[in-house]
Task: structure prediction
Amino acid sequence: MPRSVNAVASRRRRKKILNLAKGYWGSRSKVYTVAKNTVEKGLQYAYRDRKAKKREFRALWIQRINAGARQHGLSYSVLMGKLTASGNGLNRKVLADLAMNHPEAFKAIVETVK
Result:
């Protein structure tokens, strides 16, 4: 009995990888085995960096809040401690946006906390 090969599934599997490798340079986008390694590594980076992105943005927000708070004579930790004690529900993302783009609103928040 002849050997049965599921060519449809094999082709679809290879085509999926090569489509993900579109735009890569040279054999990384043409040769299946090279493309497979590159795509797998790229997906690993994407998974890792989705988490790193959150850390980086939080650090950026903290720096912006700290810079805004120091203009009004407070440090970041003192400001955040007083905000939590006062029961203010603003998160770091919103506070950083206010410190950057709406300094008068940020000043009002700092004054209510002082």
Remarks:
- Residues 41 and 57 are 24 Å apart (CA to CA).
- Residues 32-71 form the longest helix (40 residues).
- The domain at 7-113 is CATH 1.10.1900.20 (c-terminal domain of poly(a) binding protein).
- The chain has one domain: 7-113.
